[in-house]
Amino acid sequence: MNELLAQLVPVLYLLSAVLFILGLKGLTKVRSARRGNAIAALAMLIAVVATLVDLGAIDYRWILIGLVVGGAIGAVAALKVEMTAMPEMVALFNGSGGAASALVALAILWFDIVEPGTAGTPAEVLGGSNGLTAFLSILIGGVTFTGSVVAYLKLSGSLRGRPGWLAARNLINSSASVVAVGVGLYLTYGAGEPASVALWALVLAAIGLVFGVLLVLPIGGGDMPVVISLLNSLSGVAAAATGFVLDNNVLIISGALVGASGLILTQIMCRGMNRTLGHVLFADFGDEDLTGGDTEYTNVRSSSAEEAALVLEDAESVIFVPGYGLAVAQAQHTVRELADLLIARGASVNYAIHPVAGRMPGHMNVLLAEADVPYEQLKEMDRVNPDFKTTDVAIVVGANDVVNPAAETTPASPIYGMPILKVTDSRSIFMIKRSLSPGYAGIKNELFEHPHTRMIFGDAKQVLQELVDELKGLA
Question: Are 415 and 401 in contact, with CB atoms under 8 Å apart?
Fold first, then answer.
């Protein structure tokens, strides 16, 4: 029976790896996202069961305690966390993955070297590659954990760090990187006594934790989509490194998938902002508190919901442009109701999705999916931009920099060259915002003064509900 189980474990690991790939593929489309998520969850369940079988005789009491506690936390999060708080939740998930990887690597060093008093460096006891990946797991896991916690605090508004707040931060971070690598290499190849291994492992973990804070804290809130993608990638890299330490193939494969997909998504986010990853991480740019530059307006035209409804009454094509303001107001269901009314009147309706709209990759897609917006109506920037030329009305709900014409018309602008949604090609534009406040770039939005733009000031949900009521009254 034991021999049969030993042969079954590799098969289960292979099945789990295949399901992880299929699950990830499913997540690439809105229609198949739920199925992909379910497949990935099944893959994780199979991997956990196979690991427990492979371990053989273990104390399942701790396993059950972890299952109950973790399951309870996950259930409460799924039921209680609002969609507007999903970016913060994703950040915490990334941090939890990094912390788990670091703790597993530390546990390996403790139980294989420190506790039994084994003489020899980690490279000698665990093997050269395993010792090296243990150091990488501790360092990257630590960076991911505290970096994700800082990202969570910034996204929730509990922590604000302006760009440039830390003098010579690039020099400090570069120095910390060199020190971390030096400590890690010494831990792997130079620490020959159990006490020395314990000491330097803890020092390395501490450096990783501090480095995560220093890396993320100065980055502006508008760059959090890129940061979350990068931290997601780092959590996968840490998991893959831990897989090498444990000689666990499914952990290596799943970690590599997360690391690679996160890195690709990071690149997509950077391209959507026309910036490099280095510029996001090391340049002093981008924060929701930044208000420098010319933000005075002299030719803004305002409108009421009643006036906007009269225009919408005759519109044959409407494009909604959602932004973070839509999420804050929790107006996704109201915008869907308005869209349904317009469709019932014979208008074509679509939603223009910018790659960096919101506070995490795919934030607008997830938000609108919660309101059961048909996925056919969600159009990415490259697909929807040509449609604005034949659009009667564009309704911008809480978006800002991603529709700012300065990205194309003002070479001196910090967002010049950033791909934007070309709402200025529409015949009429209604922009729903609480005020004329700038976006994360802290600059004047030329769309506010565009001759086709009418501002409707107020809470997004309230304004959209007024539009719904006005249209119903015109029926």
Answer: yes
- Report the distance separating Cα 322 and Cα 394, nearest Å: 11
Taking the C-alpha atoms of residue 339 and residue 38, their distance in angstroms, rounded to an integer, is 30
pLDDT in tens, 177-203: 999 999 999 999 999 899 999 999 999
Q: Which of 223, 340, 401, 469 is catalytic?
A: 401
54 catalytic residue (yes or no): no
CATH of the structural domain 305-474, one choice from 3.30.300.30, 3.90.79.10, 3.40.50.1220, 3.40.50.720: 3.40.50.1220
DSSP symbol at 302: B
> 224-246 vs 86-109: helix axis angle to the nearest 10?
30
CA angle, 403 then 404 then 407, to 5°: 115
Residue recorded with tokens 């670091």:
102
What the block records as the tokens of 214 is: 């220093």
End-to-end, the C-alpha distance of the chain in Å comes to 73
The per-residue pLDDT for range 266-285, each reduced to its tens digit, is: 988 888 777 788 878 876 55
Phi-psi region of 417 (alpha: psi -120 to 50; beta: other; left: phi over 0): left
Distance, in Å, from the CA atom of 257 to the CA atom of 92, rounded to the nearest integer, reads: 19
Kind plus residue range of the DSSP H or E element containing 306: helix 305-313
Residue 103 to residue 97: CA distance in whole angstroms: 10
